[in-house]
Amino acid sequence: MMTGHHWSRLKVSVAAALVILAALLSSTNPIHAQVVVRVWYPSAKSALSSVWVQTYNDVRAGRVVVEGTSIPLYQLEKAFMEPGDPPPDVVFAPSDWAGGFVNARLLTQLDSRISPDFRAQISEIGWRSATYDSRIIGVPILLEGYALYYNKALLLDVPVPSTLDELLNAAKTIQERGEGALIGLNLLTDYFPTGGLISTFGEPVITETGQSRIGLGNAFRVYLETLLTLSKAPGVTLNQPDQAFREKRAGMLIGGSWALPEYLKALGTDLGVAPLPAVNLKPWKPLVRSWVMYVRLGSPSTDAALDFARFLAETAPQTLALQMGEIPVNPLVFEADPLVGAFARYFAQQGEPLSNRVEFRAYWIPINRAIQDVLNGWNTPEAAALAAAEQIDSALLGQ
Predict the structure, then answer these.
(1) Which of 12, 19, 296, 324 has its CB surrounded by the most CB atoms within 10 Å?
(2) Does 15 have pLDDT greater than 80?
């Protein structure tokens, strides 16, 4: 549990880091740099990225200078695919963009450049998300995904759910205690928040080498059946904005790790984080996306870029990421904060990489359509699963 005292110390440490950064900025002198590494990163990560860039520049004392450029996320993929002159050496981007970058032959293969010591600094779920056709095509620097948030003040004596039955009981109990004014569980039903359940029941819908498995076995059908059961349970509300949770009118929420700072601000010490509950004695595997540092093929600064990547994986930069509300990739940092650690351990121990295959772009719409068809009563789980498989196979044939 994060106490108020702990959170106060955390805020002080972040403030101290920013003071140190200001000193570093004033002392950095890139004029005599031998190597320049141009880094593009999304504006949503600009605060952390700029701290990382300037701290690294100070550490290297002008021998290498990283020049950071913030670009809106919706522009970043196209900008990297069609760069002007000079192009970037490095881009920070989501792991599920890898397929498009690989197909466009934009990325440097890194297997031979990743030492065992370097690999050990980063959790294996991160490396899996940055691997394509059995090749390492980037360095993971942050993790993100979904877990169960809960309000301790609303759970009271109800145990934190560790099984599906316990989750349903907790949702019903919270609703009854509030006499209908409280939401027991706000359930997000899209693929990213819940799709790890498919691997719980069997194979994922697509393998890490791109083979389709959505039409094989019963995993996708059972997944749809489980979502239907959850959707009909007392105390469960579907796909509502998270305002009710922030306003302490919802006891539990399946939510993204990126919302942790906001929820902590709203709930303080009443906020808890737990793994999604086991189903039929099998763990609910979360889908995990990484933020990856990709190195452009043909960059003249590849060695310096990888030195920057190794720096970002070290405990100090990863601890700074943790203090700014991000989920680190370095396992040595997991224990530095109980709530962040809950996400990080869950991802590392049970996580399934969100597919980075270019083929997966044909999956998103059919899968989410199947979910909505079942939850709205427009189709049975069996028929919806079959329809999704047929739509995906048709789309893949047309690529």
Answers:
(1) 296
(2) no
